[in-house]
Amino acid sequence: MLPISFKGNMPALQNKHYFNYGGQGPLPTESLNAITTSWQIIQKLGPFTNDVWPYITKEIISTKNLISELCGVPPKRIAFTENVTSGCVLPLLGLPFYEGDHLLISDCEHPGIVAACKELARKKSLKIGILPVLKLCNGDDNKDETYTSVLNLIDKYIQKNTKLVVLSHLLWNTGQIMPIELISKKLKEHSSKPYLLVDAAQSFCHIPIKGVCDKADIYAFTGHKWAYGPEGLGAVAMSRRVLEESNPTLIGWKSLKAEESIYVNNNIPFHSDGRRFEIATSCVPLLSGLRTSLLMLTNEGSETDHFLKIKNLSSILWERLNAIKNIELVLKSAPPSGIISFTINGINSPEEVVNHLGQKNLWIRVLEDPKWLRACVHITTDIMEIDNLVNALSNFIADNKPA
């Protein structure tokens, strides 16, 4: 019997053509089985016995070590979280901000992060500025020009009292990659040395990140998108200065160096490493599921191999969509990542497009702001799926005859 392929291991990809990896990726059967097995082991050992703790400790350490290797960041600077938003917000809210400080946020950030920054600004009387990167739509052909434009925009919008810059590594709406390493260097040269918070929801297991994580102060990601892992488990990599300067704002027993000493007059009860931002009881079996998915991905090639395959597939999809009359692609040339956003002239409701495609087992999504359609390709995407999506869109346009 031939071994099951990586794609063949995913039930969600057997009965549909899936282009929503940027929202949530499918979970391999092997990873689901690993989660179930872990739960069974915990129940057999006893969910709260002396016998179970060595197993739980091993699960935590082995998973954190694997993530550390993928990120190129020491395990002590990594904390487990439930998702990207908590990974961004938990260390952010503990940073030392003072009345009048300036926060610079790009116009391509996820609403959850923007809302958290606005609430922080309200509570501490901070000012917010917007970094306009949405308009940078050159695509991969003019990557250097995009990078130069981003750096010039930072020079234009940063202020003397800017204490935080918030910018995704990979923009979830346009698919553009931001030059995080160059931005980090620029901020370190600035007089106020702003913190750099990077939403890496679309980066982890999608584009090369090793070396980039280490340049951000907060680099938060999740396992349930491009990593093919379970929802409910993510991580954040933090700089040394964040670990030194940020105090936990949501606190639980995991944050503490020792539970039994909490009643003692201890000025610093928290862990000095990433665990200071971990809170309390979490779902241990998810660790085994994510680790299994990550190891399966590793067996499919390096992060560079994955990235090259994704870019090749996204270029093919971009070119074929570009050939369809009335489709307006957001990027002017093939995308630098697996994210492709577009609109259709004469169609007032993009939800109608998603519903129509869904009836044909083709799944893309609508972005709310801007109101664009978005399709994502991954290493499990194939040419037949791309062909079917392109043909379905072409037929939809022909049948609806947009002006």
Automatic annotation (TrEMBL):
GO terms for molecular function: lyase activity. It holds the Pfam family Aminotran_5. The keyword Lyase applies. Gene3D superfamilies: Aspartate Aminotransferase, domain 1, Type I PLP-dependent aspartate aminotransferase-like (Major domain). Keywords: Lyase. Residues 56-365 form the Aminotransferase class V domain. This is Cysteine lyase.
